[in-house]
Amino acid sequence: MESTSMQHEERHPVVIAVDGPSGSGKSSVSKAVARRLGLAYLDTGATYRAATWWCLHLGLDLADRDAVAEAVRTMPLEMGVDPSVESVLIDGHDVREDIRTTRISEKVSAVATNLEVRAELGRLQRALIDAQKAVGSFSGGRGVVAEGRDITTVVAPDADARVLLTASEEARLARRALELHGDAGTEAVEATKDQVLRRDRDDSTVVEFQVAADGVVTVDSSDLDFEQTIQAVLDVVAQVAGVREVAPADTSTVL
Fold first, then answer.
1. Dihedral of the CA atoms 167, 168, 170, 176 (nearest 10)?
2. pLDDT at 251
3. 15-29 as b/e, with b when 16 or more CB fall inside 10 Å?
């Protein structure tokens, strides 16, 4: 029987870019797509969270754009690309849980809207994407699923498949409330609303991630469950890039 790796070795490395607003499910869906296609996974949003953590760790005023940009330029960040195991190291310190705290969520837009920081992290993200084209990389040269704001237009505009994963505001708020509070009731949604909508509003001042650019395929997951959303993205990838699923389905995660 033909091995799954051989199915990919016969083609050039593939880059799949997934963009979208907060709560659209792009992280969980992108990880699942990467696993199913045998690719690496890059969470570009985590690089901004890591940068925010680093600047706060250094005691910087996030409003001091020059100081923040300089700190990010010298940040000793190591990003893992295994879709099954998150790994974010700064100066050898595991910060994968630290960068997901409310404290970071509330402050990350101050860093993400710094244009010098965006340029620096964009260079890092492109380098991480390019690294997966090498045979000795995590993916074995098969490629990567990269997700995050501006990935389809600025970081990887030449990706083999570009997807804007979106959902209604109601669906996005319910999903994020469930993720953060374990409940999608009215109180949990209200507690989540400001964080989600404010982040989208702030980030939209420097990057477009709510309307698909030319060549970007929109997938609306408002009425789809997790598996249906994965399949919708896989269908786009198969149609646009000719890459098909090689790993078994994983339905253990929810949007």
1. 20
2. 46
3. bbbbbbbbbbbbbbb
Query: Are 96 and 104 in contact, with CB atoms under 8 Å apart?
Result: no
> How does DSSP classify residue 216?
P
Residue 25 · residue 165 · CB < 8 Å: yes
- For residues 135-154, average pLDDT: 94
Question: CA 82 to CA 174: how far, in whole Å?
Answer: 28
**Nearest in space to 23 (alpha carbons), one of 155, 177, 142, 248:** 177
Question: Phi and psi at residue 85, in whole multiples of 5°?
Answer: -140, 110
Confidence of residue 25 (pLDDT cuts 50, 70, 90): confident
CA distance 51 to 65: 13
> Quick check: 210 and 203 in contact, CB under 8 A?
no
Nearest CA among 226, 236, 227, 253 for reference residue 84: 253
pLDDT at position 7 is 44
Burial label, 240 (beta-carbon count in 10 A; 0-12, 13-18, 19+): middle
**CA atoms of 244 and 236, how far apart (whole Å):** 10
The DSSP annotation for 133-182 comes to: TSTTSTTTTSEEEEESTTIIIII-TT-SEEEEEE--HHHHHHHHHHHHHS
For the entire predicted model, the pTM comes to 0.84
- Token pair 């997934």 in the structure block, residue: 18
CA–CA separation, 46 and 57 (whole Å): 16
Q: What is the pLDDT of residues 92-123, one digit of tens each?
A: 999 999 999 989 988 999 999 999 999 999 99
Give the mean pLDDT of 50-68. 98
